[in-house]
Amino acid sequence: MLGTEFTLRRNAMAHVVIKNLAKEFINRRQKHRLGDDTDVGFGDNVLVLDNINLEFFEGEMVCILGPSGCGKSTLLRIIAGFEPVFSGQILINGKQNGGPCSDNIFVFQHSALMPWMTVWENVGLGLRRLKDKELKKEKIQEFVAMVELEGFEHHYPRQLSGGMQRRAELARALAVNPDMLIMDEPFSGLDFLTHMKMREEVVNMHEYICKTTLIVTHDIDDALIMGDRIVVMSGRPSIVKLERKLDFPHPRNFEKEPDLSKLRDEVFLMLGVSYAV
Amino acid sequence: MKASKSPSLLALLAFGFIFLLWQLAARYSGWSAQVFPGPIKVLTAMGELISNGTLLKHSVASLFRVTAGFYLAILFGIPLGIVLGRLRIARQFLNPIIQFLRPISPLAWIPLAMLWFGIGDKPAVFLIFLSSFFPLVVSTAIAANSIDPTFFQVASNFNFSRIEVVTKIVVPGMLPDVVTALRITITIAWLVVVAAEMIAVQSGLGYLILDSRNALRMDYVMDAMIVIGIIGLLLDHIMRRLGRIDSVCWGPNSH
Questions:
Q1: Are B151 and A106 in contact (CB < 8 Å)?
Q2: Which fold has domain B36-242?
Q3: Complex ipTM above 0.85?
Q4: CA-based nearest distance A73→chain B, Å
Q5: Which of A218, A262, B78, B160 could be stapled to B155 by a disulfide with Cβ–Cβ 3.0 to 4.6 Å?
Q6: pTM for this model (two decimals)
């Protein structure tokens, strides 16, 4: 249904289909305290996601917005296979999601580089099964160069700045040649300039490799500048409030695109903030 | 330069102060020089012990026992610690037993050790093994259990096999904590070897102390004590160096 209204630049095949997805968190601690003889439905379970229907298309970059604690990260973790589905269905390339695998690489909110491995070893994680040593070396070099970390190959993550750590993680993710990148607040904790630069790099990277990319963010500008499409979710229990295709050429600019600017105001209002304070 | 030099200078000063205090105490305590020898007497005695090779022989014997017991403890303790740290069912099954055996002093095992292993190196090695095994198991289990779960998610994301999870995540992930545990444990092992050597063997620094006491040579007793201190310091130093290896010291609290 939703797919028809999009005029997609890229291959219009649905990569991920989410049908009637709901997710409840069971509050174990409360259950223990209350014992088994209390009434069912005393609020011991929290409904996080409620009846989510979404489709992500091949090669598309979708930014998912929502108030904090609304379950947008949970949605990503379910897609990546880290969390079980509670009810509903997730199909990836038409198949049931069978747990985490290297087709869908998750980029964590805080750097998840192995601190005991150098940049070189981290980027090579997904290439460790490669028999051809020369090819492996070449590939690692290629991805290290892609994120401009030449000269830092033998540094440990703790010796890198926050931005460099994120870039190294991006290189590690891309080196596996995944079908999809799943990024959970990829710019959180970065300073303003690094944030802007990383945003640009992710957009360029996406233009270049055209992989399905899902990004959860709380930064409305990030979503509007980067996304081919945005999805806005409501507070808990979360439902999809708005889906909008963004047909604006890169690089985007709010001053030059009044429609984008208008959409920003709309989203701000939707999230309960008046932008014109 | 200045900052790194002044602590060792202060340490030297402290030793000098102790030396002086010792001399004064020996001089004015009222005990005879045989009961409470002063530092000069003790150092001359040490010269004798070094030149006739006694000290070296006993030190090597003690170090051998500690090394053997300690390696055995590592060999069994660390794998068991990993299993306890990573498998809830193993933890629920074995943890009560380990927590029950842990507070029993290794010295309480002396009668059994002698009965089981007779006289010689074996009971001493067994006691040292016991003294290091339990602390190692417990700290390894805690270290393996407290690895950031994110890394295991990364591992599953990158299709790690079970063996790869252990070799690439668990072992390097717990290494900083385990090295700290080794440092503490070798100190305990070194404490126990002296006691163990007082019961079942004819060599080692513990035996030297016992033998010298029987001969009423308190200067030799003190020599053995000094050597025990020095070797303990060296062992700790070696362990600390281990923690400075680059792929080991990634941890937040090691610098």
A1: no
A2: MetI-like fold (1.10.3720)
A3: no
A4: 14
A5: B160
A6: 0.80
